[in-house]
Recover the amino acids of this structure.
């Protein structure tokens, strides 16, 4: 039987792997030069999954949510510096739900898609860096 910390760390790394997939998907869509709404969705998902990886690693419970503010607040209970450095991720929350369905959202501009990818890259990088610096990382 594996030690509990090993199982927790493995699950956190699975969350990070999913974050990497979303980041790559968003980057590929952005490179197409046409599909900016799904770029922002995948950027939001990459950040969400990276933050959840951090929370799983530190065994902080979280609800089923797409709310970046809540996830950052929970991460801040472990590492205030991480939450502060990724505060821009709060702006991605609407892309996790609102833009996936018909409604009155303005079209996503290229600049917004590019900015969302930048936030996502920073979030995935920061979480990966912090977890690799942790014991067992």
């Amino acid at each position: 039987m594996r030690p509990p910390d090993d199982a927790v760390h493995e699950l956190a790394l699975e969350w990070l792997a999913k974050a990497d997939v979303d980041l790559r998907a968003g980057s590929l869509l952005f490179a197409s030069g046409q599909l900016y709404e799904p770029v922002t969705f995948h950027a939001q998902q990459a950040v969400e999954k990276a933050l959840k990886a951090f929370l799983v690693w530190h065994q902080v419970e979280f609800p089923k949510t797409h709310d970046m503010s809540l996830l950052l607040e929970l991460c801040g209970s472990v590492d205030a510096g991480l939450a502060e450095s990724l505060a821009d991720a709060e702006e991605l929350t609407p892309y996790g739900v609102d833009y996936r369905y018909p409604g009155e959202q303005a079209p996503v501009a290229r600049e917004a898609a590019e900015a969302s990818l930048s936030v996502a890259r920073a979030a995935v990088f920061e979480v990966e860096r912090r977890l690799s610096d942790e014991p067992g990382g």
Observations:
- The radius of gyration is 15 Å.
- The CA atoms of residues 8 and 37 lie 33 Å apart.
- The chain has a mean pLDDT of 93.
